[in-house]
C-alpha cells in the first residue's frame, strides 16, 4: 500500500499538511492561545507598522510570509524528489533494454542476433556510466561462445584443420566491430580512464578465422590462444594486446600498430607485417616462417628463440645483429639487410650451430 504523500523517498509532505491543519484547529478550540500571544508580540506590531496595515491585513501578510518560508523548501524538496524518481525510472528502463538486447544474442535467427548487438551498442553510448563495461563483457562472451557457431559460418577458409575451414560468422564480426566502436567513442569523449580503467576485453580462445577486422580499435585486447588465421587486421590498433599462443597464420597486418604486443609462442607463418609498428614486440619462441617485415619498425623487438626461416627482413628498420643471435637456430631468413648476417650454420649431421660459438 502506498503511503499518503509518498513518504517512501523522503519527508511525508501529505502528513505534514494534515499536522499543520490539526494544529490550527486545536489552537482555535483552545481559545486561540497561540494567536493571542502572536497578536501581542513585537513581531506583530512591527509587521503592522512596517506596512501600515490593520490587524486583518497584518495577519494576511504574516500568513503569506510563513507560507513562503515553509513552501519554498518544500518546493525544492519536491523538485529534488521528482528528479530522483525520474532517474530511477530511466535506470530501470535502461536495465530492461539491456536484458532484452542480451536475450536477442541467443536467438536462432541471425538477423535478430545482429539487431541485439546493435541495441547493446546503442545503449552503451546512451548510458555510458552504467552500461559501458557490462555491454563490453556481454559482447566478448558472445564472441568467445557464439550460440550457433556452425549455422552461420561461411565455408572457404584454407586452414589445415577442420575447425579452421570455417570462416568467422557475420554476427561475430559485428560484435567485434561493436566492441571497437564503443571503446573508440568513449576514448574520444575522454572518459576511458574513468569508466573502464583496468578493463581489458577478453577474447581468449575465440575463433575469428578469415574475419575482417581492418582498422578496428583492438588495443589491450586479450587474444591469448585465439584463432586469427587469415584474418584481415590491416591498419588495426593492437597496441598492448596479449596474443600469446594465438594463431595468425597468413593474417594481414599491413600498417597495424602492434607496439608492445606480446606475440610469444604464437604461430605467425606467412604473416604480412608490412609497414607495421612492431616497436618492443615480444616474438620470443614465435614461429615467423615466411613472415614479411617490409618497411616494419622492429626497434626494441625481442626475437629470443623465434623461428625466422624464410622471413623477409631486408627492408625493415630497427633490426640488429643481436636480434638475429637471439633467434632459433634454423634455416636462414629469405633476405637480410646489408651489414647483417645469419649467425647459424648447418653441420653435416643436419644440426644448426652458432657461427661464433
Topology at a glance:
Elements: H1 13-29, H2 33-39, H3 42-51, H4 55-104, H5 110-126, H6 128-144, E1 154-155, E2 166-167, H7 170-188, H8 192-196, H9 321-326, E3 344-346, E4 352-354
Helix pairs in contact: 3-4, 4-5, 4-6, 5-6, 5-7, 6-7
Written description of the protein model:
- The longest helix is centred in the N-terminal third of the chain and has 50 residues.
- Strand 3 and strand 4 form a beta hairpin.
- The chain is an all-alpha fold and 357 residues long.
- It contains nine helices and four strands; from the N terminus they run ααααααββαααββ.
- A two-stranded antiparallel sheet has the order 1-2. A two-stranded antiparallel ribbon has the order 3-4.
- The radius of gyration is 36 Å and the shape is elongated.
- 34% of the residues are buried.
- It has three domains: 93 residues, no CATH class; 97 residues; 137 residues, E3 ubiquitin-protein ligase SopA (Pectate Lyase C-like).
- About 7% of the residues have low confidence.
Can you give keywords for this protein?
single chain, 357 residues, mainly alpha, Pectate Lyase C-like, 3 domains, two-stranded antiparallel sheet, two-stranded antiparallel ribbon, 9 helices, 4 strands, elongated
Amino acid at each position: 500500500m502506498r503511503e499518503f504523500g509518498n513518504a517512501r523517498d523522503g519527508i511525508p509532505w501529505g502528513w505534514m499538511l494534515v499536522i499543520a491543519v490539526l494544529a490550527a484547529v486545536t489552537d482555535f478550540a483552545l481559545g486561540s492561545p497561540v494567536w493571542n500571544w502572536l497578536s501581542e508580540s513585537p513581531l506583530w506590531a512591527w509587521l503592522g507598522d512596517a506596512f501600515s496595515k490593520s490587524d486583518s491585513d497584518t495577519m494576511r501578510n504574516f500568513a503569506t510570509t510563513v507560507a513562503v518560508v515553509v513552501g519554498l523548501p518544500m518546493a525544492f524538496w519536491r523538485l529534488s524528489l521528482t528528479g530522483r524518481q525520474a532517474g530511477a525510472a530511466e535506470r530501470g528502463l535502461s536495465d530492461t533494454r539491456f536484458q532484452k538486447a542480451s536475450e536477442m544474442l541467443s536467438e536462432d535467427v541471425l538477423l535478430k542476433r545482429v539487431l541485439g548487438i546493435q541495441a547493446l551498442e546503442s545503449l552503451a553510448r546512451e548510458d555510458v556510466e552504467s552500461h559501458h563495461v557490462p555491454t563490453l563483457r556481454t559482447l566478448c562472451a558472445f564472441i568467445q561462445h557464439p550460440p550457433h557457431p556452425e549455422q552461420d559460418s561461411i565455408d572457404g577458409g584454407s586452414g589445415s584443420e577442420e575447425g579452421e575451414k570455417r570462416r568467422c560468422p557475420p554476427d561475430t564480426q559485428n560484435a567485434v566491430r561493436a566492441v571497437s566502436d564503443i571503446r573508440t567513442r568513449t576514448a574520444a569523449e575522454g572518459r576511458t580512464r574513468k569508466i573502464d580503467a583496468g578493463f581489458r576485453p577478453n577474447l581468449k580462445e575465440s575463433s575469428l578465422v578469415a574475419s575482417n577486422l581492418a582498422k578496428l580499435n583492438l588495443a589491450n585486447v586479450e587474444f591469448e590462444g585465439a584463432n586469427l588465421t587469415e584474418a584481415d587486421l590491416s591498419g588495426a590498433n593492437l597496441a598492448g594486446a596479449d596474443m600469446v599462443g594465438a594463431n595468425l597464420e597468413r593474417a594481414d597486418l599491413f600498417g597495424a600498430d602492434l607496439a608492445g604486443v606480446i606475440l610469444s609462442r604464437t604461430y605467425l607463418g606467412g604473416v604480412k607485417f608490412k609497414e607495421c609498428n612492431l616497436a618492443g614486440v615480444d616474438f620470443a619462441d614465435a614461429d615467423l616462417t615466411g613472415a614479411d617485415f617490409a618497411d616494419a619498425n622492429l626497434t626494441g623487438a625481442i626475437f629470443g628463440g623465434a623461428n625466422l626461416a624464410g622471413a623477409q627482413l631486408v627492408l625493415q628498420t630497427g633490426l640488429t645483429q643481436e636480434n638475429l643471435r637471439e633467434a632459433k637456430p634454423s634455416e636462414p631468413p629469405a633476405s637480410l639487410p646489408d651489414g647483417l648476417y645469419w649467425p647459424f650454420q648447418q653441420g653435416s649431421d643436419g644440426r644448426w650451430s652458432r657461427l661464433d660459438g
